[in-house]
Write a structure and sequence with these properties.
Elements: H1 6-18, E1 29-34, E2 37-43, H2 53-56, H3 59-62, H4 79-89, E3 98-103, H5 107-116, E4 120-125, H6 130-138, E5 142-145
Parallel strand pairs: 3-4, 4-5
Antiparallel strand pairs: 1-2, 1-3
Helix pairs in contact: 5-6
């Protein structure tokens, strides 16, 4: 039996976390990891105690908002935001952590990632947000697109 690389292991977990998403358009999962330990997880969806979109309907669908635009027109939080919030809520230091995410972070999440001190982002799918790519590059955060064939560990 061959054990998965650390990157494969953590990316597999992001996909499991994403299954908790209540978003009707895209299920995203995120993990914050430091020293090969999971610090926090997050998935995209509405804040705690708020009616889920499957009941309330998708505001972005009603308004025909394309993916990657007008992030404020959504009832939900992104997976990366929820992971950072969970760490803060529980007093977990994420400075120097690696973010694993099923999708490349958007500009709003990127700004939070920069200020939270996250040093590496490993993601699965790309996301059409040029400003996010520019800012994360300027912040000198290591960004790695994970593919199962890339089996090299970033940790």
């Amino acid at each position: 039996m061959q054990r998965p690389s650390w990157d494969q292991y953590f990316m597999d977990i992001t996909h499991l976390v994403a299954t908790r998403s209540s978003c009707l358009r895209r299920q995203v999962g995120a993990l914050l990891v430091k020293d090969r330990n999971i610090l926090a997880t997050g998935y995209n969806g509405v804040p705690s105690g708020i009616t889920h979109c499957e009941v309330a309907g998708c505001l972005r669908e009603r308004l025909n908002v394309p993916s990657g635009e007008r992030h404020e027109l959504c009832r939900g939080l992104h997976a990366e935001q929820n992971a950072i919030i969970q760490a803060a809520k529980h007093g977990t230091n994420i400075d120097g952590a690696t973010l694993y995410c099923t999708t490349m972070p958007c500009i709003i999440c990127t700004k939070m990632i920069i200020n939270a001190g996250i040093t590496t982002v490993v993601y699965g799918e790309g996301y059409a947000d040029e400003l996010a790519r520019e800012m994360i590059s300027e912040a000198a955060i290591e960004v790695v697109q994970f593919t199962p064939a890339s089996q090299g560990d970033t940790l």
